[in-house]
Structures are given as structure tokens and as C-alpha cells.
Specification:
This protein is α+β, with helices and mostly antiparallel strands and 365 residues long. 24% of the residues lie in helices and 28% in strands. Strands 5, 6, 12, 13, 14, 15, 16, 17, 18, 19 and 20 form an eleven-stranded antiparallel sheet that branches. Strands 3-2-1-4-7 form a five-stranded parallel sheet, with helices on both faces. One of its GO terms (cellular component) is cytoplasm.
């Protein structure tokens, strides 16, 4: 096959590319420039897609003896990921930019260009596996549960899966990938994994949002509507947050209070007891299926609401307006805007963006 290898400059994509070459595929490496800030440099394990990363990717491609290019996707990244991130926070939702990047950049914009240029598939260093099932190609969890990245790939559809190549999915551990990189002479063998939001490399999401969205003082209220404090901008708060509330009026029982809801229209933050974070039902209208769609309108499954959260047994229902999931045990601290990924066994069935939640503890209880 003709393979376009997305080389981030990290150890995973370098080893994935090496395996594609070793398997006999015709491989071309490409690094995506996602920022117009030409002087951007990596700081330890913070950030990605920087000048340093591009140079590391080029060195790996040179060692493997494959052509290498840098493609400027910064405008698309700005429009589809950064602006989406800002608009979601403005609407009081908590988005996942990594998932959106996979959906809009790596497996949409990049894959579209790859197919136009005659490539058969895009290769990445994600930890996930593809399985030929009875109804078609399926996306499954990786062998290494600690590194499994199937959650952030839940947005991929059947057509995208058909042009995707994940060489690392069956590797038992990240340690083996690093050892392989060392043995192959790849300079990134011990390079730290990137974390945090790549376009906020200093990790100060609140400060970054204040600059982009603006800060306006508003009220913090309890579940009855009583004002218990003020804030400098609702965008700085997320559901489940406890620290930084600076409440002027303590709870009657003296227990800590947590953010239960963010209301951007009124610039209000709602707080309450930890028990009120328990969510008995989630639903959303924006959904997609990773491969064959479910054949039943209601079925047993597991739902995962964060990249590293434990999957929870649940019952999912596909309605005329979207997807609804009722977990066996309440979910903790769910925020609108998060992605809920639905699993059946190890298979990723699909995902939806959470628009609505139902508390397991009604107001006044």
C-alpha cells in the first residue's frame, strides 16, 4: 500500500512509521504545522507540533530513508479546533480539543489530501486496533489498556477507518515501543510524551480563555438560586470544579461545594454538594458510528466520558433526535460538551457530544 505517515515528532509515530516501512509499504512522512507562531518551541512534555517536533520527525524520516514533508494546516486547525474550543466554552460547554483534532484534522483534512494524492491510508502512532467484523471494519481498544487511545478516535466513521493504519495497536506496552525505538536508532526513543492542550503549552487554560473570551464579573449561586459568591468570568469554570470558587457564604452543612452548571447567557455559575454531581442520564444530538451502526434501537453497552475514565455499564437508546445513555451507576461530574464514547466489549461503537444531563439528586434533596 501507499502509506502517508503522520509524524508528530514523538516516539509513537516514529515507530509506527518504521513498522510501516518494514512491512513493505511505500511510505511518505508528513509533519503537520498547526501553529503560525514560527518561534514556538516545546517545553518538556508540554505542547506538541512545535519546531523541535518537526525537526525530530525529519530526523526519523531521514533515518528510515523515506520522503518527508511539512504541511501547513494551521488555518484549518485554527478554524476547526481552536475556534471550536473557544466557542464551546462561550456556550458553557467543556470540549475535548484532542478528539476534535482527530476528527477535523488528522482523519478529515489530512486523510482527504492523502486520498487526493493517491495514498491508500494514513498511518498514525495511536494505540488502537482495527478488526474485520461481520458487518465491516471495526475500531477496538489497544492491547495496552494504560495507553489505549480509542476514546479520542471514537469520532472516526466507516470510510475513515477504511483508510487508517494503526501499527501500534497490538503492542503490549509503551516500554516495548521505546525499546524498539532505541534498537532502531531513533533519537526520540526517550522523548517525553506530550500532554495538556497543545495550543496552550503553559497549561494556563483559564488565563488563555480570559484573553480570548474576556472576563466579566458574575454571580455564583446555589441550587435554590441564592447568591453565594462572585466570579471574574464563567468560562473559567468547569463542572466538578472545587478549587478557586472563593465563596463568601459557606454551605449550611459546612461541606465543600462544587460547580454543577455553567450558564453563559446569564454569566452565572451554579454550585452545590458533591452528591449533586452524580448524573443518572446523558444524551446528545451530535453522534456518529465508528463502523457498522447498531442494529437495535436499545442495547447494553459501556460508556466512557473521559479519555482515561473507567468505562461504566449502561443501556443506550438511539432515538429520532440522537442518543441517550442511562448508566447502571451514576456518572460523576459530567459536563455538556464532553464526548461520550460507547463501547460493546472492546469495540468502539460510536460517540456523541453530551448536550443534556439528568442529575441523580434532584434539587431540594
Amino acid at each position: 500500500m501507499r502509506i502517508l505517515a503522520a509524524m508528530s515528532g514523538g516516539v509513537d509515530s516514529a515507530v509506527a512509521t518504521a513498522r510501516a516501512v518494514e512491512a513493505g509499504h511505500e511510505v511518505v512522512g508528513v509533519h503537520l504545522a498547526l501553529s503560525r507562531a514560527g518561534g514556538t518551541l516545546r517545553t518538556g512534555s508540554r505542547g506538541c507540533c512545535t519546531i523541535e517536533d518537526a525537526m525530530d520527525a525529519r530526523r526519523a524520516a531521514d533515518l528510515l530513508g523515506i520522503p518527508f514533508y511539512v504541511w501547513d494546516f494551521s488555518e484549518r486547525f485554527r478554524d476547526d479546533v481552536i475556534e471550536d474550543f473557544i466557542s464551546e466554552y462561550k456556550a458553557g460547554r467543556t470540549p475535548n480539543p484532542c478528539l476534535r483534532c482527530n476528527e477535523k484534522i488528522k482523519f478529515a483534512a489530512l486523510l482527504e489530501r492523502a486520498i487526493e494524492l493517491g495514498f491508500d491510508a494514513v498511518c498514525t502512532g495511536h494505540y488502537a486496533t482495527l478488526v474485520n467484523g461481520e458487518g465491516g471494519l471495526e475500531l477496538h481498544r489497544a492491547s495496552d489498556a494504560a495507553k489505549d487511545q480509542s476514546y479520542v478516535l471514537g469520532v472516526l466513521n466507516a470510510d475513515q477507518l477504511a483508510h487508517t493504519y494503526f501499527p501500534l495497536g497490538a503492542t503490549p506496552s509503551k516500554a516495548l515501543v521505546r525499546a524498539e525505538a532505541e534498537a532502531r536508532g531513533l533519537s526520540v526513543a526517550q522523548k517525553p510524551d506530550s500532554h495538556d492542550i497543545c495550543f496552550i503549552p503553559d497549561g494556563d487554560t483559564r488565563g488563555w480563555l480570559a484573553e480570548k473570551v474576556g472576563a466579566e464579573q458574575g454571580e455564583i449561586v446555589d441550587r435554590t438560586g441564592a447568591v453565594v459568591g462572585t466570579h471574574e468570568g464563567a468560562h473559567a469554570f468547569t463542572v466538578g470544579q472545587r478549587r478557586g470558587l472563593k465563596l463568601g457564604i459557606p454551605a449550611d452543612d459546612g461541606k465543600p461545594r462544587f460547580v454543577l452548571e455553567v450558564r453563559p447567557v446569564s454569566n452565572t455559575v451554579v454550585v452545590g454538594p458533591k452528591e449533586a454531581l452524580a448524573i443518572a442520564e446523558i444524551s446528545g444530538e451530535r453522534f456518529s458510528w465508528a463502523g457498522p451502526a447498531p442494529t437495535e434501537s436499545e442495547f447494553a453497552c459501556h460508556v466512557q466520558i473521559r479519555a482515561h475514565a473507567e468505562p461504566v455499564p449502561a443501556v443506550a437508546s438511539v432515538t429520532e433526535t440522537g442518543v441517550r445513555v442511562i448508566p447502571e451507576a451514576p456518572l460523576d461530574g459530567v459536563a455538556p460538551g464532553q464526548s461520550a464514547v460507547i463501547y460493546v466489549g472492546t469495540r468502539v461503537l460510536g460517540q456523541f457530544t453530551i448536550d443534556h444531563t439528568v442529575s441523580a439528586v434532584p434539587a431540594g434533596v
